[in-house]
Specification:
Blueprint lengths: L1 E10 L4 E3 L9 E13 L2 E10 L5 E11 L5 H8 L3 H8 L2 H6 L3 E3 L5 E4 L5 H5 L5 E7 L8 H9 L3 H9 L3 E3 L2 E2 L11 E5 H15 L1
Parallel strand pairs: 1-8
Antiparallel strand pairs: 1-7, 2-3, 2-6, 3-4, 4-5, 8-11, 9-10, 9-11
């Protein structure tokens, strides 16, 4: 038997941009969650507005340049016109948009929390389920390591996590976990109960 739980990673803010301000000594810009739209005849330009964290000077990051108005869905146009925060964050977290604008994000500036059910390792060992799966919901990509989530949600020490990895107790999408792996929305972390028991028995033998 198997059971599946959910780990949901919730970003608290969008990433800062690493950009020198031309009006002060600032080097970081924060997304304002607002769009600027400029329509000329049948063409439209759309930007995502950023503000210097030091002096509030504005930087407009290009999203669409001189495109036909009919090229954008009415739904998306309305969301941008209304400064929809979720839409703004989708672009603020987009690697492709930053690449096109030749700007870099300070991904370490993103704070987050994980909504999850507390499940101690001992509970997994004593479970009647042979495979325990944790499905990860993480809509935004900010280079978060999967190992950081596993440590937090399972209350593991760094040494314990290393042992899990070395002994292939934890799998990511049915492949042995590598600590360098970054989180992707929909990832599945799997733990085989028998592998976990074998690891703990081996540790006890070493101690004795």
């Amino acid at each position: 038997m198997s059971i599946e739980y959910k780990w949901e990673v919730k970003a608290k803010n969008s990433p800062l941009l690493k950009k020198k301000c031309s009006h002060c000594d600032g080097s970081r810009f924060q997304c304002s969650d607002k769009f600027r739209l400029n329509a000329q005849k049948k063409n439209i330009d759309i930007w995502l507005i950023y503000r210097c964290v030091e002096c509030s000077s504005r930087y407009n990051m290009t999203l669409f340049s001189r495109i036909r108005t009919e090229s954008i869905s009415k739904e998306l146009f309305n969301k941008m016109s209304e400064n929809n925060t979720e839409t703004a964050w989708e672009y603020a977290f987009s690697h492709e948009i930053r690449r096109k604008n030749n700007v870099e994000a300070d991904l370490s500036s993103v704070e987050y929390e994980i909504e999850h059910e507390e499940i101690p390792v001992k509970e997994i060992i004593n479970s009647t389920d042979e495979v325990i799966t944790f499905k990860i919901k993480c809509p935004y990509d900010f280079n978060l390591r999967i190992s950081a989530i596993i440590r937090k949600c399972l209350s593991l020490s760094l040494r314990q996590l290393d042992q899990f990895v070395e002994n292939e107790v934890v799998f990511l999408n049915e492949k042995p976990l590598q600590k360098k792996h970054k989180v992707r929305n929909g990832d599945r972390v799997q733990i085989n109960r028998q592998d976990l028991i074998a690891l703990f028995l081996a540790q006890k033998e070493e101690i004795n």
